[in-house]
Each structure stands twice: as structure tokens, then as C-alpha cells.
Specification:
With 213 residues, this protein is mainly α. It is 73% helix and 0% strand. The protein has nine helices and no strands. The protein is globular and about 45 Å long.
């Protein structure tokens, strides 16, 4: 199988304060998870990545369970499951890919705009990178539908434009691929995610080399 390499005024104020603290804690946990992912995905040899994903997936799942109304932890869980599938490769990767799809679909139901339409982006990537029937659930039409939804919500997103460009390479449309990839390079920096941005831009440049910049 081919994969590429979530009353009283005093009580009311206390409620808001607790909610804000929980939200801040979740944001911090997700930020830490993102940095750990960068170390695995961009800074670890591909041959050594597979065993490093399950602990990160477990962390994302725990954050999601602690924040059942939030899409962000689920989006990260889907991303990690997708990467785990890619690291596993072969038919054994399909279970992880299916889990990633189901988790991303759950995130869509909570908030399809979260993390720059991260759930739609994850679904689009899965559907174009997973083999189609009879081996897997891959489907280019569904991939395009999900990526279209993502780009409509977050037209300037680094990730959405990169993955749409990568998908266009798969489709053999170099012009559209180049347009999306160049737009990805123009995306505004993401504070706190400089390490992820640096890694993604290397991928963009690699794809541009395939289509001619």
C-alpha cells in the first residue's frame, strides 16, 4: 500500500475562568504535541518513525477525551494516525488510515473550520494518498471535494495550499499544482509553529522542483 512519505455573578465568572483555563491548557498541550510531531516527521529518519507515533496518538486521544466538544485534538489525532499509516506502509497501514478518516469526520461534526479547516484537509489527503478499491478507500473525487471545502474556508492556508498542490501533481496538472504551491509559499508565518513551517516549505520546494517553479 502506498502512502507518502481536539446564576450568581461570582459563579458565572468562575465558570468563564475555568473554561478559559481549560482552553489554554488544551492549546498548550496541542502546541507541545505539534512540536513533538515535527521532531518525528521532519527530524527523524523514515525508517525509525513508526514506533514513535503510537505514544503521540495516545496523547492526542487523551486530550480529545478531556475536551469532547473541541475539534482541534481530533484533528491532530487524525494527522498522527495518517502519518503512522505512512510510516507503517503496506496493507498493515490501512487500519490506521481508516481510523484517521473516522476521527477526521468526527472533528468535522464538531467544527469544520478549526485549525484552518484541518479536518477537511486531512480527509482530502487521506482520500488521494490511500489506494482505491479494492485495496483501500482512496477516491480522487472525494479528495477534491474535501480539499475544495478546505480551501473555501482557509484560502491562504499554508497546509491547504500545499496539499492541494501536491494533489494536483498526482492528477498531472502541473499548472494548478504550481499555482497552489506558490500560494503556499506566500502564506503568513504561524507564530509558535516556525519549526513546522520550515519543514513544510522544504516539501513545497521539493514539489515545485517536480513541476518547475
Amino acid at each position: 500500500m502506498k502512502f507518502k512519505t481536539a446564576m450568581a455573578l461570582g459563579a458565572l465568572l468562575a465558570s468563564f475562568s475555568a473554561g478559559s483555563a481549560l482552553a489554554d491548557e488544551m492549546t498548550s498541550q496541542i502546541s507541545d504535541l505539534g512540536h513533538e510531531w515535527v521532531k518525528v516527521y521532519y527530524q527523524t529518519a523514515e525508517s525509525k518513525q513508526e514506533p514513535l507515533y503510537p505514544p503521540l496518538i495516545a496523547k492526542a486521544d487523551a486530550i480529545a477525551k478531556a475536551n469532547p466538544t473541541k475539534a482541534e485534538p481530533l484533528i491532530w489525532e487524525a494527522i498522527l494516525l495518517s502519518c503512522y499509516a505512512g510510516a507503517k506502509g503496506g496493507l498493515g497501514a490501512l487500519d490506521a488510515a481508516k481510523q484517521a478518516r473516522d476521527v477526521a469526520l468526527a472533528a468535522v461534526k464538531l467544527d469544520d473550520k478549526a485549525l484552518d479547516a484541518g479536518a477537511y484537509t486531512s480527509l482530502g489527503v487521506l482520500y488521494y494518498r490511500v489506494p482505491g478499491w479494492p485495496l483501500g478507500f482512496g477516491n480522487d473525487k472525494k479528495a477534491r471535494e474535501y480539499l475544495d471545502k478546505a480551501i473555501a474556508i482557509a484560502p491562504a492556508s499554508l497546509d491547504v495550499n500545499y496539499f492541494y498542490g501536491d494533489f494536483m501533481i498526482e492528477q498531472g496538472d502541473k499548472k494548478k499544482a504550481r499555482d497552489f504551491l506558490q500560494k503556499a509559499l506566500q502564506a503568513a508565518p504561524r507564530p509558535g509553529r516556525e519549526d513546522a513551517d520550515a519543514g513544510r516549505k522544504i516539501e513545497i520546494q521539493n514539489d515545485l522542483a517536480k513541476v518547475g517553479s
